[in-house]
Amino acid sequence: MSRLADYFVVVGYDHEKEQGRICNGKILQRFPEQDWKNVPFHQGLELFCQPGGWRLRKDPFPPTFHISILTDVEAGRHYCGILTFSEPLKMTPMKPDDLESDELESSLVHNTVMYAPKSILLVSRLNYIDTFKNCLGLIYTSFIERMDVKLELLVGNILGHIVIPAAGGSQVRFSIGAGDRQAIQPPLSEMVPVTRSTVALLFQQLGIQNVITLFSLALTDNKILFHSSSYTRLTDACTSILALLYPFKYCYVYIPVLPEPLKEVLNTPTPFIMGVHSDLKNEIAELLDVTAVDLDGGTIIVPDCVNCLQPPEYMLEKLHRELTMVLCPDLQIADLAFPPSSSKGCSKPEFLDKEIRAIFMRLQVEMLLGYRLSLTIIRIHPKPVISFNKGLYLMQRGLFGEEFLSKLYDSMSFVTFVNERGPPYRICDIFDKLVANYQRMLIEEEGNQEKVLKNIKEISLQLYQNENPSPEPYVQKIPRPSETSLTDHQPFPRLNREELQEIISGGVEMAKVNPKLKKSIKTPKTQVVPIGPLPKDWEEQKNVVNNSARRLEVLRTCISHIFENKLLDARKMFPTVLRSLKSRVVREVLAKELALHVQENRAMLEMQQFDMVVKLINCSLQEDSSVEEFTLARRMLPLSVAFCRKLCTGIIQFAYSCVQDHPVWATLSFWENAFYAEVEKGVTQLYISAPSTDNKANDCDTGIIDTSQNGLKSNEIMRSSRQSPLEVSAERLKLWPDIGDEDKSVLMSNEEGIVYSQAIHFANHMVCMRVPLDTKKRLVNSISMEGESCGSSNLTSSAGGSDSYEGDGSYDSSDTTTTVTKFVSKFVDKVCTESGVTSEPLKKLHSMIPGIVAMHIEMLEAVHRESKRLPPIKKPKILKPVLLQGERILFPGYRGYLLPDGREEGIGGNIGGPALLPAEGALFITNYRIVFKGNPVDIQACELAVIRSFPLASLFKEKKISVGNLVHLDHYLQEGIQIRSNTFQLIKFAFDEEVGSEKVEQLRRSIGKMRFPPAIYETFAFQGTELLQINQTQKQTNKNATLKRFAKNTLMRVKGSTLGRAQQQSTQQQNRRQKYILPVEPLVPRRLSSSRLGASNSMESLSTDSDSRPSSVMFDDDDLNNIDIASASLRASLYRSPSDTSTEFSPVLGVIDEADVGTLKPSDTLSPDKLHDKLYVQDYKRLGLGCFETLQKQKFGRTAEGFRLTDVNIHYEVARSYPGLVAVPGPCQDDSIRRLSRCYRNNRFPVVVWRHPKTKALLLRSGGFHGKGVMGMIKSSTQATQSSNITSADGGVASKSIEQEKYFMQVIANSSSSVNSASLLSLNKIASNNSLDMQEASPRLGTKRVTTSGTALFQRSILRSSGGKATQGTLRSGGRANTLALPSRASFKSLTLGYRAANRNGSITDVDHAKAQEPRKADMYVFGEKSQLRTFKLEGSLKCDFIPYEFNEVRQVKASFKKFMKACIPSAVSKDPEMAFLKLVEDSEWLPQIKTVMQLAGAVVDLIDCQGSSVMVSFEDGWDFTTQVVSLAELLMDPYYRTFEGFKVLIEKEWLAFGHRFTHRSNHTLHHQASGFAPVFLQFVDCVHQVHRQFPMSFEFNQHFLQMLAYHYVSNRFKTFMLDSEYERFEVDQVISDDRPRMNRIDEAGDQESKRPDIRSFWEYVDQLNEKSTIFYNVFYSEGSQSRVLRPYANISSLKIWDFYLNEHLSCGPAFDCELFDAARNEDNETPLSPADRCVVNACYQNVAQADPDMQRWLLNEIIQLETDLNVATSHWRTIINKFNASMQSKAKLVSPVTEEAKAHGTSIHKKITMDILRGKSGGESPRGFASHHRFESHDFQTPTNCDACHQVIWSYMKQGTGMRCADCGFSSHEKCITSAPKQCLRRGSSKEPSNTSSKQTEELTKSVPINNDKDPNTYLNFAARIGETVSHKGYLYKRGARLRQWKQRYFKLDPNKHQLRYYDTDDVQTCKGTIDLKEVESVKHDNYSSNLPGVPKLDDNSFIYMKTSTRDYHFLAKNKKEADEWINKIQDCITN
To answer: What are phi and psi of 948, to 5 degrees?
Structure first.
């Protein structure tokens, strides 16, 4: 019995707390004033009376009613019926602040009538909403109609006199005394929700799909927020969702109507269901992880971060079909031509509501079908304790992989469901009956829709009868106020407290003595809960097991042979049985078979029997997974403690000591489920075998045990043995009320004893499985045990995580005893607390655990000692690898297993073939390679040899890995390493147990040391060489003789000059000397004396390991001829010891006096004669760039071709990284070259490397121009103090500019000036004649010659973002000024006249010639970095243009290579789509970098070959990207370089002679370790591969040659690709000699070192192989058949991932060491095959190209074999091919028109890309139109923003109407600066299509345009404005707001030009939402604390970004950590640049 209402409250407007706009309500009266004992009063009810806030209104409003539902601390629901009406108030205006007192007195004071809300409400625990509404309406009617009824009487009757019976009671009819007549009918069951028609209304509002989505979200614990303009609709919607969840109960926050002041509750991290008014829908839009439901609009919005799981597909389809049948019954007959006349529409809302609920109940039953069979009974008395085995249930129903069901079974709602509905004897409701009969219903339906609809209506009828059990309707009488009364607003009176309290008290006393009330109470009956039949899929699972078990005769026969000791027969079947254990059915049968033998007392086994049984158990446990909840491990646990063998007398070894290494034994959830299952068996057996306690309960006096006394006959006892545990517990619960207290205590004690005994039993099991056999070793499965239950137990949390029973905490965590003790204690504490074990037995059990562990360890010591005496297991013989000549094994083979990695080759599976991995063998470390050699573990491939190796010098990364158990192995592998190679090889190796941890660590350290030797001569390429011993010819007597003192004094001078700069400034200006800048590089000494060799550890290197160019040191002019820093630097790099910890020289720029530098001049000098035979010198002669004879005869004269070879760098004094002889223009003097070199980084001045034979255009290369770095500032400060008239030829920028101009004039004069440019095929002409419309894509090259009187200079510079201007000046006859003149802005008619560069704010600096006369093309193009624009300056008449190009720096190449290598050789197989191969390749950006190189090389080809213009490439230091582009361009233009000999010359010239830093980029020594591997040369070879693939007939060599080159350039087998320059190689040749006798070295084994390799050169090795066979020859090569110039496609779709990155050959290892490959192949083919024999070639194992050669090579071998058989002189293979080619050349070759058309199309595309590069675009997209203007709109900037036109701040947030922004591109400016904005709109211009005007019309139109027309939209000025604003990175990020602190997803764009980070609402929105100025950024980094902020989306916790600026802090959230790292790197790069 319950009261109808607990409290009556009157809430009114609070005038006292009124402050401005903040208004509150307050409780005026409440009754009763004292709280009920069992129902406390809720505080804060005034907030729920007016959820939108208490506000005064000018007009009255009609009365309103709504329900608010509150939840108390015990999760009880309280329903608040609230009636609100308006009450008039007289408001007196307050005195204004600016009104004087006398004025106020004189003025009239008017009272204003306002209306305040007042609420009356009833608070109740009962859900009778209609009754509450009626009662409150009657009170209001009595008050407003002034009825003759006291309000106190009405309220008192409601609170004290009306009592409602519990569920199942009879109908209650009553009246509160206002002339009313009411009735309340309690429902039949309180467990079934009462909904009236709210569910049908919810479907009407939202629709089927939306409601199903909400249902799924609520079941999976997500946040749901409703919003509507009606509070009643909010309550109904929330109530409906909870009703659909039945039988689950919602356990989280539930607030159907949330007041606006409590909106911060929405940020709670827990799930909730809430409702808010629609006025707050804009604020809730910022909630990221909340599903917003618009009841008024009928829509729901599920955020992207919410994973909306739904039921399985077949359940979902069935739900849709049934809902459609009920909600849309006419849909089935809508298409009928003659629909039936008796068709019925939808049911009434009350019945439709119940039909919908019936359908969802059917879905719930289907999701929970058979759930009671997975319940585990832990305790029966005093109350049931039940657990649900989730894993067992999912496995038996076959529902693995269903995320929705898995999450449902882990939810709190399901835990509550199990606790309430798990007991087998309780009150049942509709759901329990439906579960019992649902299987029968499904059989009856069988797809019949009529029967389905009939069953749905039967269930709905039961639901309707539950709400309306009384068949007789009762007519209620509820008086209502009249219409006129509703307009009469009066103050609500104050109720009499004493009178009302007296009425309530009287009603309470009457209820106690009323006999009618007691009779109306009906107690619901308890009954046994039906289990129901087994699910259909459950039966199918059992049938599969039984049917499979009948067919497993092989398994049963093998096990029988083992136990019958027929081991030979068993071993024959053993491999088959091991492979079959991958099936779960086979594993279950194995457990059954082994259990049968244990029951037959055959557990004591012989030695070999024991080994085989243990191996079977290990293999089966290895396949067992946590997804199956380790069901097999539970069966194997008793078997592992049963099987044993006798080691000696008194010592027995059990099987558990050999199966301990599986992770299942360290999983706490496994032990919990196994423990509960055993406890259930014990409790069930207790009541089946001994029901004596029941007899005592019925016959306590006699004490005789008689089963007939309690109703259990003997036949019933026999039947009970077949009962399930649920049935047994139901019987016990049924008898529980009739048992006496003493017997109850006995039963509870017995059950507690079972739990206690099982806890001791499992504690022993856990100790056995956790303590290793060798207690000195660490636990192999020691995992984290914090919160390890994995959700398999549905019991409440206990004190299992506490430390109350863990002693004093003095244990050492590393001790095995302590770790096991804590693990067992944690388990015991958890299960015993949940099972109801009292504290005293629990403490006793905890005290026993350390003793159990100690006794077990003592027993294991004897077992371990005896097990060591057993004969070792015979292991396969270690196969030793074949070695090269000079190669020796440093570390003997470490036995272990080669594990499979992420590649699918070699593991069988989808690709097929035998499982080659894992393979058992050994890992060898030689002085050249890391080699694994072994045999596959798989029995089908165990005879094959598996080899995987790579050079030691190519080691990229080594790390330790955890291994665990492997397939087919009977022991656990602890140690493992993963080694990744630069040659795209990966070795994952697990060490055998015989290899100790100390050996593994020693091996890892040794690998690192051997990978980075301290000196270059210790690499494999220099093995067997010897250092020459030369006496010291000159002693260093100077105080600064050593570089260490040299560096020390330099640093002291720099420090002193910094401290006393002000005092020394005048002195320094007087004594200043002219300085040279020399780079400091790690070079090689020429000779080393014995004394210097001994002291080599003290030498220091002056080089740097960074990716930027090396720093420089400034010297005096007189010191240049005396200092040899390079020699000393090499001594430091060669002889530095790894243990040397002396201070290194810091590359600081210092000023050094002549007296401080000693004489370090080398004893020998290099002469030109020694360079005569160099390949690049011979190539210069071939190209007509000079020859050695001309150099000898006329050193400074001009040759006939206008070029000469100069020996200005013969001693490597000008540029250390340049060759000794270079080609320069003939008139250029050596002194001029020395001065010119200072303009370039590392003094790498421009040199000619190639000359076009027809156009005579030149290709030049150089280092980058010096910028305004530290060097530039020092030079500027030096030159600023000089006189304006510079008489010296060695100083100042002007002199260098003059030398640069002269040099370029001479280059141009000797190239394009001598050629008739009119006859050249220009780019414009080619572009206009092809099939593409190229008039917009080609720049107009029609410029006119400039005639000037004098030497006018121009400079293209970029203005600083602060708005600085370039200084103007002129050149005069007396000297040259330091600053140069800039002409006025003019519009360019030709794109050749310069490139316009945009600075960060988008401003443009234009330079043009003043006059133009004759149109002509540019004579030379210079490609360089964008930052070099400000330093590039030439004479205007030179017609030389600088083109900046975006390229990839070395650090970007390194980062890309790491990602690309992980994509090609992943360490593990991943099913994540984000980790797919092509996705990873795309993310690595490797192919775009290849594209960048090929596109620029193609542009160089076009300019030289088509336009006849010379090209100079000048990037960075000139040895990385410059070398890639130049060498690739030469390869494309010159067919000679596509032959064997020519390609060798190309590599020797461009890469070796011109100083690519092979040693530095490949990290050959310890000194270069920190710099990181940079595959610059590999990218070039990849580019050649791409060209070779597109033009296979143009190359004499094949792809295998390129792969050989890519492999050996990092292998260190040859000296060819070692050291960093020609100078270093010359010095090494002087120091190291191969001709002198060497000392024999003895290794550790005592064997004499093998002979050193004879071949030191890669080219010699290739020539030797090429002479023997056609291994490198391209059989498709056709000399002269292809065009001379190649133009490959460079777009990403045309590029292919090289096979070198992906392929490997496990049969013989890499095929690039031919001796090793042939030897390994000969080992496999010991018996030669006859011609008739056939062999199987496995692509995953063998090299198909070698095993199955192509037809051409096969025919060539056949010809040679026939000549041998005929005794004819065997011809060389090249002779045969030449004869064949000669015969083919005589035939006419026809060219298809299709081929010509395709070639023309490719050429046009190629030229188009070149035009884009000249325009400043790096991609190959076609350019668009340029005639789109801005669309400016007025914009209110919320933050200070710089104007993009004048760069001043726009103060629009202070002064409205001054800011303008383009709606398309976001260009921001003042209103007055619109006219200064660029004419071209970036966004609109990019979308306009090019016009269709023909090229001829375009040329005519171009000629008619005036030159100085600034308004021409097609001018280059406006085009440059378009490309000035760029976006370097963009994407979506979540951003945390500054005001509401909510997370919103924004679309961000990073603009490096404007130095801004802009964000938009979406990617398609044009208007910028906000801007972050990067110049204000102080730091940007990862944020590890933002995950704790409220409202954070559910993404990766490692993807938060924190940006700190000078104005505020920003918090961002990326999708994952990878994207966060990319954003941080991009922003940091933008800030740095």
So the answer is: -140, 125
